[in-house]
Amino acid sequence: EVCRDKYDAVLPLVRLLLHHHKLVPFVAAVAELDLKDTQEANTIFRGNSLATRCVDEMMKIVGKHYLKVTLKPVLDEVGYPPETSLGTLSPLWYHCLLDRHSCFSSVVGISQENLRYYVDKVFREIVRSSISCPTLMCDVFYSLRHLAAKRFPNDPHVQYSAVSSFVFLRFFAVAVVSPHTFHLRPHHPDAQTSRTLTLISKAIQTLGSWGSLTKSKLSSFKETFMCEFFKTFQEEKFTESVKKFLDDVSSTESKEPSGVSEPVHLKEG
Fold first, then answer.
1. What is the DSSP string of 239-264?
2. Which InterPro entries match (predicted)?
3. Whole-model pTM?
4. From CA 264, how far away is CA 170, in angstroms rounded?
5. What's the CATH number where 214 sits?
6. Strand 87-88 vs strand 83-84: parallel, antiparallel, or unpaired?
7. How far apart are CA 160 and CA 158, in angstroms?
8. Which residue range forms the structural domain that includes residue 237?
9. pLDDT tens per residue across span 113-126
10. CA distance 92 to 226
11. What is the pLDDT of residues 143-154, one digit of tens each?
């Protein structure tokens, strides 16, 4: 109410609160206000409210090193065809990526194999990475999880979707589709690589959305080939991996040191 465009104030506000170690209680307070206006559990933290924008900026600031150690090695591979039993695939075959309308049907299977290779690898790196998640992010996720469970006590899944809506949809998936904006790649990817990253990002969003691998969710894909592709992920092990990861990153239990982390730059000038 003080600032006409509150989004202009979000970044300096987050930096100020981080400096004074007050960000977690502030986010909890504005998130609680946000939840009062949320009527459906499946829409939790999906809009661009003050609470969600604050968490977005916090993740960008304190999660840079976390993204780097988790995603950069595998993203560096994207754009370079993996070795298969047929040898190294040509760029034409590799970048078909499943769409039967844009490539020869004889290479669709190979393209699907390539996409599955990258989705599996990115997903595996993410669900293994909880030990590297910054403590501040874990503290925020812990607050959001318990606020969501309190707001929707009859929905056992909302505590997970409250966290996945940030860590998967607004953090990892965004970094995959735009790695250059998170300094994971030196420049904007070319059109073909960008297409690959977009499909990987969609896959990560879907796998990370709690209970997303259902027929109703799969039918929402605009591309029929993506719907067919995700039928291969309808296994309980993927859901259980996501659940364990979300449990870990929304826990306040102390973590082991995760190696050297980069300092957080709060002030300049």
1. HHHHHHHHHHHT--S-----S--PPP
2. Ras_GTPase, RasGAP_CS, RasGAP_dom, Rho_GTPase_activation_prot
3. 0.79
4. 20
5. 1.10.506.10
6. antiparallel
7. 5
8. 9-80+110-249
9. 778 888 889 999 99
10. 19
11. 999 999 999 998
